[in-house]
Structure formats: C-alpha cells, structure tokens
Amino acid sequence: RPKSGTLPKPALFQEEAATALLQDTSSKRAIDRQKLLNANTKFDGRLDAAEERHARAEEELRQQLKAAEAAEEAARRKRLEAEARRARRLRRQEMRRNAAAA
Question: I need a labelling partner for 38 at 20 to 30 A (CA). Which of 1, 55, 90, 92 fits?
Fold first, then answer.
C-alpha cells in the first residue's frame, strides 16, 4: 500500500502525462495565437499600404484633373481672344467700307 498523500505509480504517470498534454496544448494555443497576431499585423500592414497607394492615386488624379481644367481654361481663353480679334478686324473692315462708301 502506498503511503498516504502519495499517488500510486500509474496514477502519478497519468497526472504527469495529463500535465504534459495540457502544457503542450497550451503552448500550441499560444503559437496559434501568435501566428494569428502575426497574420493580423501583416494584414494591417497590407491594408495600410493599400490605403496609402489609394490616397496617392487619388491625389494624382486630383492633380491631373486640376491640370486638365487649367488647360481647358487656357484653350477657352485663347479661343475667346481669337474671336475678339476677329470681331475687331471685321468691325474695322466694316468701318472702312462705310467710310469708303460715304
């Protein structure tokens, strides 16, 4: 008979095995948790990079739009100035014709 307070050998072995299994499971869970954290961090990094690329592309498009609008405005101004010159030339010719006819 074993002394009181001590477990018989097979029971002691089972307890050690159970403890080892528990520690193994716990460490596996810790590893899984770490892998998940790493994956989350990696995903966050990719998300941040994607958001950054998106913001840069948006800004680039904004700049292109601004440049296109400026070019459009310049072309419109140039066209209006050409129309004004043409109108002045026609008015002068009309005045000359009227002066010659008088």
Answer: 55
